[in-house]
UniProtKB/TrEMBL annotation, chains A, B, C, D:
InterPro entries: Gfo/Idh/MocA-like_OxRdtase_N, Gfo/Idh/MocA_oxidoreduct, GFO_IDH_MocA-like_dom, NAD(P)-bd_dom_sf. This is Predicted dehydrogenase. Residues 5-134 form the Gfo/Idh/MocA-like oxidoreductase N-terminal domain. Residues 142-272 form the GFO/IDH/MocA-like oxidoreductase domain. GO terms for molecular function: nucleotide binding. It comes from the Bacteria.
Amino acid sequence: MAKLKWGMIGGGEGSQIGPAHRLGAQADGLFEFAAGALDHRADLGRDYAQRLGIAADRAYGDWQEMLAGEKNRADRVDLVTVATPNSTHFEITKAFLEAGFNVLCEKPMTMTVEEGEEIVRVAEASGKICAVNYCYSAYPMVRQARAMVGAGEIGKVRLVVTNFSHGHHGDATDAENPRVRWRYDPKMAGVSGQFADCGIHALHMASFICRDEVRTLSADFASTISSRELEDDAMLNFRMEGGTVGRLWTSSVAIGRQHGFDIQVFGETGGLRWASEQPNQLIYTPVGGRTQIIEKGEGGLHEDAQRLSRVSIAHPEGFPLAVANIYCDLADAIRGEVREGLPNASDGVRSMAAVHTAVASAKDGGVWMDARPPMFR
Amino acid sequence: MAKLKWGMIGGGEGSQIGPAHRLGAQADGLFEFAAGALDHRADLGRDYAQRLGIAADRAYGDWQEMLAGEKNRADRVDLVTVATPNSTHFEITKAFLEAGFNVLCEKPMTMTVEEGEEIVRVAEASGKICAVNYCYSAYPMVRQARAMVGAGEIGKVRLVVTNFSHGHHGDATDAENPRVRWRYDPKMAGVSGQFADCGIHALHMASFICRDEVRTLSADFASTISSRELEDDAMLNFRMEGGTVGRLWTSSVAIGRQHGFDIQVFGETGGLRWASEQPNQLIYTPVGGRTQIIEKGEGGLHEDAQRLSRVSIAHPEGFPLAVANIYCDLADAIRGEVREGLPNASDGVRSMAAVHTAVASAKDGGVWMDARPPMFR
Amino acid sequence: MAKLKWGMIGGGEGSQIGPAHRLGAQADGLFEFAAGALDHRADLGRDYAQRLGIAADRAYGDWQEMLAGEKNRADRVDLVTVATPNSTHFEITKAFLEAGFNVLCEKPMTMTVEEGEEIVRVAEASGKICAVNYCYSAYPMVRQARAMVGAGEIGKVRLVVTNFSHGHHGDATDAENPRVRWRYDPKMAGVSGQFADCGIHALHMASFICRDEVRTLSADFASTISSRELEDDAMLNFRMEGGTVGRLWTSSVAIGRQHGFDIQVFGETGGLRWASEQPNQLIYTPVGGRTQIIEKGEGGLHEDAQRLSRVSIAHPEGFPLAVANIYCDLADAIRGEVREGLPNASDGVRSMAAVHTAVASAKDGGVWMDARPPMFR
Amino acid sequence: MAKLKWGMIGGGEGSQIGPAHRLGAQADGLFEFAAGALDHRADLGRDYAQRLGIAADRAYGDWQEMLAGEKNRADRVDLVTVATPNSTHFEITKAFLEAGFNVLCEKPMTMTVEEGEEIVRVAEASGKICAVNYCYSAYPMVRQARAMVGAGEIGKVRLVVTNFSHGHHGDATDAENPRVRWRYDPKMAGVSGQFADCGIHALHMASFICRDEVRTLSADFASTISSRELEDDAMLNFRMEGGTVGRLWTSSVAIGRQHGFDIQVFGETGGLRWASEQPNQLIYTPVGGRTQIIEKGEGGLHEDAQRLSRVSIAHPEGFPLAVANIYCDLADAIRGEVREGLPNASDGVRSMAAVHTAVASAKDGGVWMDARPPMFR
């Protein structure tokens, strides 16, 4: 099979997200890095792209130039990854979808719910793929968890509890560090700090594994470092459409938690537990039985978990290959074999609605509110 | 030193709590089991007490008989443990305090806030010890955590997150089992199920380690097994007097969690983590530094942690000896050396106030409420 | 049931082993501490015994006095614990057995194989109990492991691998500390250092769980701190009577290992893993299946594991209660219900033979030798 | 930087090692997969190579054809990976080195010590890189451990203890499975089974982290499944040139251990612990201090550990990226920046010497033998 052609917007030299996407797209030999507008400083972006092996005529100065250049080529890129600053995701994603490109957009897909709904409509109208990079959902054992829920192996889900709490912004003396400060500044981060940044991954995963959507929520936000305008710690209670009770804690001042992303799902006939720092194991307890350790790569896993494992049991696979799994699913989808687990524009707009609802609820003393985008009510 | 004399009310043959108290009182050779009214069936209680080595004249048929018998003896018991059904704690504790006995009351100390306040007043008037068995607080490494907070080793506490979530009531087909059902029946359990039963230990520990008290709270309760009138899953957000943000999750349907009691405390300069299933380690991370494992029995622990360790480093000590530590503190207190960490009637009434406030908040959509007993506002 | 009467020799004020035995004997209310010769300084011993509640006429100045005093009493002690320096175990144990007392001897039971064989013969002739304090074997989950092997749940045992390696003697600058130094001085410790001190517990446990005895062994000893005459690190390979392959590593310079005692048992149809720092779990993997966590206190444990648990599932029980379990078994045995798991004089002499054989093998370049006491060849 | 050109011999369709090398070589965009002789069935190999994107004229039918085809090209491959059956490694590696290619050879590099010594000489004469794929040594935290030892952070190393013990060949009923059986058949596997297959990784790592070489060893081998001619369980004791004591256990019948590769290094002033199933943490204990968790990606790591991390702290990286790290080092070396940690032909021949010595020692009752290749004595 010939490699698909791939382009990226953003992810310039020195960024952290650029290498993650390049590795994700290339690790399995599925995509050729064919085009890019990698930096908002046009010259630097063109130069860096060429150093990464992109031909000079596809090393673009900005995304508009890339759109113009690619859309008329016979060998146009099969997929565009949008890894620019958050506030630009909407217009770039929209423009490329409208021009008939498949898009993988970094999270958050948009800054507002209205924009998110527009992307959903544009994507639908275009017939193209609009994926959002909730890459944790592509760990094999997360897929296994989702498949087990789908197969009824833990019964109807009663309760989901998830945390994404680290401590890397817990040093008040470092709070003015520009790499930290912008996250708590509404002018740059939008309406929410830690919840929009990390918590939203956890909320997506709750929906992803439970195969259900958030209907209502109540939130409590705190700025434990008082100079912060936006929250650095948040708690959400929620209810899903099917009645599942949800709890979500997210924090950036939880000193000692390194990554701190985990999820527990409790159903009528069993419980599941997964943690991103030990992603190759899924802990399963049947009601009344003993806790079992399900290993990535063991025999008898659900198909989706097996398919996304590369090396044999107990050879750990980590975060970069979870990103690569998103690209595997995208390559399949581009070739016509749609993977149902791939996060899409609907997930993106639901996240945005949850963020805005949580902000409103927290401001109003934790009152319960409808968390769905209007288009999904 | 002569042994102190100890009596117990409740804890009859076949009960789980009786052996725990007997071991706790006798393990260190501090107390002699001298009197008891062990069963509401008078004959059985008298017989069992004698089989346990209590003299016939101090093997009582009920607590009133025991009170009458003991109060005029020269060698009256130095301490009475109240381990009867919850609804009787108030009257028994009150009566023994008024008669000049030291009391260790099982939790909950009372069923209402008013009763709790009365116990506080009676205890104060009596000049006697009224302790409540929040025994988790007596694990050496919990004492170490409290001492570290007190010594400023993690700075001002910003955030405390605690869980007490197990899955032992997660089997709906077993929900009518009498040993399970009463806990969710308001006629027997009172206003709250899982929160009053387990969550309250976690809330006490948050106060205990943070050295602060809960001021306001907001709660979300759920009966995930729908036949239950009382909650089997609850989430509390709270604020302490000093501004610390609190999160508490408690559940009895978290299948796969065996005990599931843990606490994380995050301050300005460090974080702490402790879990009751690995009680001999305290995990500590200084801000900007590496996570360290503090071991029970290592050199340089705070005095209270050292004092309550019996065997050397890495020889685990478990739950029964945490109960025994409460008795150690009681023996010291009876002999005049008061240990500041011993949970007392104030802790008991604060717990009751938190339970009633949480119930009210959960019923009212999670509205924030003052959680303090009126006497402490 | 009236309490049994218990006496101790050694375990004076300030010793570590004295409190462990007192707690072990008294925790469950089975024994009354009735007599003692607690210190080689007669006055101190008598005084301390009385402060611990022993009557003046049974607070003895030395073991000979205690033997003389007790043997003619109608209410003589039912059990004597020998917790004196190692080199005195033989004569004291022998004398008390010959006088018709039940004895619990601290390990090592003797210093030579010949002495050990004599104890076996004396015990047999006396008809009395001679137990040796291999207390790790009394953890409930160790008993569960032994029972599972006995029930064939892992098939024929192919391989046992055990470690007892800590790092508490790893500081060369502390090597002259008298509390450390004697262990590596043949004049005080005998022929072996770390293996005789710690490794022998592991070797006993291998036999205990596998229900088999060591037949041959090959050893490699090292004094990694070169000033030490005896080994501070040792490796044994061995074969059991039934052909099971054994591996045993023991060290006192393994800095970072706190207790470091664990065992893995691999059979034809499954594997087991237990570690003394998390003693309440037994890890079990059926061949071709998933790893399961067996919890102390769960339903369906083997009888011996259930009997020796005090509190419910996931309430940890630790080392002091393992010692107490030895006393539980002793109380039963004294009353006529013999527990087959109780370590006895045969275990004691086998250990001695293994120590002497390992020393000889290590000196001779690891040559394989018969490790059995002559009486068991 | 233009990509380097890479070719592979072996690793055909359905093999496990092929995908691992392709991912390793391509993940970071350093190598272009330019040539291959992927299968001993020439047609299948050519076809598969072309499906993987290799040009038809560089999709070779066997290694001789590839050697002939590549050696005269101006754009000849910069690196050849040899991933063929073990017995062919020697001749292929030798031939490509002699023709002036850089080679990455899968382990074992050769079947005999003599062959290994010849490769060392050929590599030296050629001036080309001859690397051996001891890929575990390229995990960032293994590099950190090696760097810490080099910097004296744990003092002189006294003791190294390593295990590589899994249970995937523990099912005797599966022992005739061809994928398992060949490993214990001397006609196919050579002189050693489990030790040569897995244990040798552990022995290399001991040398790698300790920065020392094995001088003497004593071995105990067992075929716990008696139908096996070669060992499925082995224990080595060894001494390194600098006096360090070594212990190595390897097994394939340790049911319940999934990967089971770990190493502990104990020096005069500290201890280190690493396990391949949690490869992103290195556990460090300074003598007399608390155990610390060193995280991949934390600030202040040694340069080599930092350089080989791709994503930030607590985002796990796994086995495939350890292989990729070998390719990173190779790319650097090809471009002239030699990385001192890259395993080379000397490591390959030392491994072979250890295997043959261990076999001889085990046959001779564990006698200690010189384990060095003659050329390094």
